[in-house]
Amino acid sequence: MAVEGGARRARAGLWARWIAPLAVLAMTAGAAQAAQAATPVKMALTFDDLPAHSALPPGVSRMDVAGRLLAAFHDARTGPVYGFVNGVQEEKEPDSVGVLSLWRAAGHPLANHTWSHMNLNTNGLADWEADLVRNESLLEKHMAGQDWRWVRYPYLSEGETPEKHAAARKVLKTRGYRIAGVTMSFGDYAWNEPYARCMAKGDTAAVAVLEASYLKAAKDSLDFERGLSATLYGRDIPYVLLMHAGAFDARMMPRLLKLYQDNGVTFVGLEEAERDKFYAADFHAEATAVPTTLEEAMKAKGLPVPSQPAWGGAELDKMCR
Ligand SMILES: [Zn+2]
Q1: How large is the average pLDDT for residues 212-237?
Q2: CA 113 / ligand 1 centre spacing (Å)
C-alpha cells in the first residue's frame, strides 16, 4: 500500500511538476493545430489539354513537358492531379503518345475533355456528345477500373442557351459524368506561346518578364477568388484550379506550387474539393440558376463583382514577335 501510495504521490509530484505543464503545452499546441487545420486553403489542381497543349520551344518534347509537370507534383507532394484528355492530339502529334501512360505511371488520373476539344456553344449537342464518347476508349484503356467520368467542358462552354445547357447536363448525367468545376484560373495558357517564341529568339530578358508576370497573375487570382469567397461565405471554399499542360506551365510548376504553398494552400484531390456544397450543381442534371463560379455567386446575390486584376493577355501576345 505504502509503496503504491508512495508511487501515487511520486506520480502526483511528477504530474504537477512535469506532465501537467507538458499537457497544457500539448493542449495549447493542439488548439493551435486545430485553428491551423481550419485555416489551410484547399485547392485541387487540374490540367487540361493532355497530351499536347500550345506551342513548344525548340528542343522541348511533349514528354519533357509531362515529365517536368509530374516531377513538380511529386516534389510538392500534391497527391493525385487530374489530367483532362483530348485524344485527337495523339493523332496530330504522334510524339505525344506516351504522355498519358507517363501521367498514369506517376499515379495521376485522367478524365474527359472531349476527343477534339469541341466547343459546345458552336456545335450541336449530338455532335458534341459523339465527340465526348469518342474519347472514352482511350480513357478506359488508361484508367481501367478507375474513375475517369469527369468532364471539363472545352473553353468552359456549357451551352449557349438555357435549353442546350440543360440538355448537355442531362446527357452527362445519363452517361455517369460529373462536371469538373473551375473556381480559380489565371489564364496560364496565355504564357505558353510567347514563351516558345522568346526561347526561339534566345531572349532571356523576355523570359524573365514572362516568369515574373505569370507568378504575379497566379497570386493576384488567388487573392481575388479568396476575397470573393470570404465576401460570399466568410470562408475559403476548396478551389479547383484550371491549368494547362504547356511548356511554360511545366517550367514554372515548381515555383507556382511553392507560391501556393507559401500562401497556405494545401493540395487536395478533385473529388475532395468537389465534395464541398459549393459544387453541388456540378452533380445535377437539371439546368439551374445555381452559380458554378464565385463570380456568378456574387451576381446571384446581387453583389457587385470587383474588377479582376489585369492578367496581361494583350502584352503577352506582343512579346517576342
Ligand atoms: Zn482545353
Answers
A1: 96
A2: 7
